[in-house]
Amino acid sequence: MFRFLARLVGFLLIAAGFVGLVVDGTRSIANTAVMFMPLGELLFAAFPKTFPLIEPAVTRHIHPFLWNPILLNLFTLPASLLAFGLGVLLLWAGRKPVEPIGYLARR
């Protein structure tokens, strides 16, 4: 059941990454410059009230080092490429195990 969910979410993330790449491509063509939507901009558009609360929560409850170099750099990466990467990782995690050679008689 977990493998099925991992593969389903992986395929959905790859599809979302492809759609994001098409949207970024059309935006780049319209502006005559290469433009990607950063993850932070996407999250702010999806969660406008809770996204600004991430910085105080991380710096106060976890550690300020996690916010400045790590999360800020993560939020500037292209969202479509991150969706592709996470989708591929979930597809890899949800793959079927390889049949060992020479143990077919145990079934």
Automatic annotation (TrEMBL):
Q: Which residues are listed as membrane-spanning?
A: 70-93
UniProt key word Membrane: yes
Keywords of this entry: Membrane, Transmembrane, Transmembrane helix
Q: What is this protein called?
A: Uncharacterized protein
Organism, scientific name? Salinarimonas soli
Q: What is the lineage of its organism?
A: Bacteria, Pseudomonadati, Pseudomonadota, Alphaproteobacteria, Hyphomicrobiales
